[in-house]
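Bumping with the actual sequence this time:
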Amino acid sequence: MHPRLAGPAVSPRWLMAMLLPVALLALPLPAAATPSANDLPVEDIQTFAEVFERIKRAYVEEVDDSTLLRNAMRGMLSELDPHSAYLDREEFQSLRESTEGEFGGVGIEVGTQDGQLTVITPIDDTPASRAGLQSRDVILRIDDTPTERLSLQEAVTLMRGDPGTEVSLTIMRQGDDAPRTFTMAREVIRTESVRSELLEPGYGYLRVSQFQTRTGDQVRNAIADMEREGTLNGLVLDLRNNPGGVLQAAVAVADVFLDSGLIVYTEGRLPDTEMRFSASTETAAPDVPLVVLINGGSASAAEIVAGALQDQRRGVVMGTESFGKGSVQQIMPLGNGEGLKLTTALYFTPGGRSIQAQGIEPDVQVVRGRLEVAEGSELMVREADLEGHLRSRDEPRTRGELGERLREDYQLGEALNLLKALNVLSQRDR
């Protein structure tokens, strides 16, 4: 039986607007959460219809029904959390491209913090990283468009575009007295998510910049390449400024180092959002001493990997506290070619820790440089200005160059020192 809506007779347009929320309420819910007819917010539905009609009749410019309804849907999702969004066709395609690892843009991962569009991290070897954009930079304008009223997806769409075209970002950086502007030429961002090299004979470096569908296989291949040059006595897994990505890719990377046990589990309202992921016995590097580097730009899937390896006591987590994004989003295609990005669950480490708004605390805290922050200051020292891409193994690197790099990257140098110490202790125990 349909709920009976009390009140005056309504026009067909009002009726259409009133039936939209009713249709949404008719979506299947868990049995325990199914509302009764008495729970239907009739008054709110009537208010929605009234607002809709008044905008149509009185707004200074004519607005079509489709625009109003899409704005209403965007509003419903944007008020839930910073990561849920309604995606039009262009935004839906853009999200698919970034997941698959190729798109046109400047190469930054953005989010919202305190209602402001904020850089989470620049992607390695992109216009953004080369220009010097840093984690926690607040983006005030994209070209001539203020960002304060833009949705996250609208901002991403403005920053992306054809390779060779320019975009200007006006940003405010902590500690600056005035905004600064970065003008960059867009490029085709082909994000190879894994890079590797030997820091010294026997000591490998594995950089994972984000988690894409092929990242797990790329990590396995990178380890195999390093092992062909000799036995690995230690490995640095660098997850700094890694904004996350595909959940299954995070599970695959953790599985490279674990041969048993739980990696991560999720909990949500619907049965299909409650999942558990465990390690397989096929492990590429089950015994190699491991140091995992994280910082304030390490988020989501990066925190899954760091949390799993920490809880399983598989490696030492070093650096600074991670970002604290412990929610899972599902991408839901709609029949009209558009889509929803909806937060459906929270994820937990093997030990039962929720990372949402908490982050991963490192076992060994090491800031990027020997900088000290004044007591009481809110400024966090972050790994915000990455060096750029690692050189090919075919490109020679002198010992002097490598030594200079380790001096510049204090966290990486300390990770290498810790691996050497772990090896010394291991040999004493034999």
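The tokens above came from a reply further down the thread. Residues 194-429 form a domain with the 2-enoyl-CoA Hydratase; Chain A, domain 1 fold (CATH 3.90.226.10).
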